[in-house]
Specification:
single chain, 395 residues, alpha/beta, Glucose Oxidase, domain 1, Rossmann fold, 2 domains, eleven-stranded mixed β-sheet, seven-stranded mixed barrel, 10 helices
């Protein structure tokens, strides 16, 4: 498909940061106003996967790559049923869509989902501002809201919710339990707590033989146990892990029963809390598909996909004892840019997690092996349980 978008002048718009900085540009997508935490994503590709990632709920996402939209959008690459970002910021939106897989243009998709955006601003300057001052609240104003005074716009920004202490799981999770059948030989059932799960994650679990039961975020431990799953999985998701005590309590109940666990992104932070570690907000977070991470076990550097503004507070070197009684824990991965914890491995219970997104539909795929590791752990645990039960029967 090759289409050309309008060359006519765009209505004006302004991006207002919490510190009072203003960037004037052109309206992109829907017009109006939107508020959220402004963050930057460093990937040169994968904008559609970014926009439809529920982990970005509540955030105005700015792409650091200057040219966005040239491949359009298509239904196959969507990671959920809608665009979740609060707003979208780009420097140079493509005027031409040219890709055989394209079904529509990016700006048309933004209008359809009522996503207010801005283009034509110096995104490098905004990025430097965020890196210096940290992630902050912001607003995009266009259309009628552009007539508000500078002080009125700034008051709206400063009156909006801060990400710290914010629980957003209910806004992105499924409302009902649904199931994906295992692809190929079935090895068991996995209960997936949907905290903002992506479509690719569910598909990769099913491809490894799991019957995937996707549960609403307010599900209880008893509802998990009623499924008699072979494993539990916590997904990625938006918000502050420090505001998700109920999910931590449920995870502890499942870990107490010896059920294998794998968590990614938000699920990594919640495992950290369940084990007794704290979490904290990063200055400006990690977002993009080009983040280097070291696997301490292999010494291998992986290029990975990230989307997180919080991290687990755990020592990178050595082995720690879980303050909650789950035995020994080690940091399995850490980020090479800033030494942030990027993975946890429990040595005495069947549980591990990573902070990044191994499903990485937009690439790279260095971390896909983690789904195989999860599968192998579940099979090993099942074999161990069968052996223990048989031994008990023989006594």
């Amino acid at each position: 498909m090759t289409t050309q978008t309008s060359f006519s002048p765009k209505p004006p718009a302004v991006l207002v940061l919490e510190d009072g900085t203003r960037f004037r540009g052109d309206a992109y997508g829907a017009t109006g106003s939107t508020l959220g935490e402004v963050v930057f994503a460093t990937g040169m590709t994968g904008y559609q996967e970014t926009l439809t990632d529920p982990s970005y709920a509540g955030q105005i996402v700015m792409m650091t790559a200057p040219h966005i939209g040239n491949t359009g959008v298509n239904s196959t690459d969507e990671e959920s049923s809608r665009i979740w970002v609060s707003g979208f910021v780009v420097r140079d939106p493509s005027r031409v869509v040219s890709n055989f897989r394209a079904e529509d243009s990016l700006d048309s998709e933004l209008v359809a989902d009522d996503i207010v955006g801005i283009s034509g601003i110096d995104t490098r300057a905004v990025t430097r501002r965020i890196r210096a001052g940290g992630a902050m609240r912001a607003g995009i104003f266009s259309g009628d809201t552009l007539t508000l005074t500078d002080s009125e716009q700034l008051d709206m920004v400063r009156g909006s919710a801060e990400m710290s202490g914010l629980n957003l799981s209910a806004s992105v999770s499924t409302r009902e339990h649904y199931t994906l059948p295992a692809a190929g030989e079935r090895i068991g059932a996995v209960a997936v707590l949907d905290l903002g799960v992506k479509k690719s994650t569910l598909n990769y679990l099913a491809e490894r033989g799991f019957e995937v039961h996707v549960l609403p975020q307010d599900s209880s431990a008893d509802e998990v146990f009623a499924l008699a799953p072979e494993a539990l999985f916590y997904s990625n998701g938006p918000g502050d892990p420090g505001a998700s005590d109920r999910h931590v309590d449920m995870l502890r109940s499942v870990l107490n029963e010896g059920i294998p666990y794998f968590g990614i992104c938000f699920g990594n932070q919640l495992l950290g809390r369940a084990l007794g570690f704290g979490t904290y907000k990063l200055p400006f977070g990690h977002r993009g598909i080009n983040q280097p991470v070291l696997d301490k076990g292999t010494g291998r550097v992986e290029i990975t996909s990230h989307n997180h503004g919080f991290a687990v507070d755990a020592p990178i070197e050595g082995i720690s004892d879980s303050a909650e009684g789950y035995g020994r824990v080690e940091v399995s991965h850490y980020g090479l840019n800033d030494n942030v914890v990027e993975g946890l491995n429990c040595l005495d219970i069947p549980a591990f997690s990573v902070q990044y997104h191994p499903e990485s539909a937009a690439g790279p795929h260095d971390a896909m092996y983690l789904f195989d590791r999860f599968r192998d752990m579940v099979i090993a645990q099942s074999d161990h349980t069968d052996t223990t039960n048989n031994a008990g029967e023989n006594n």
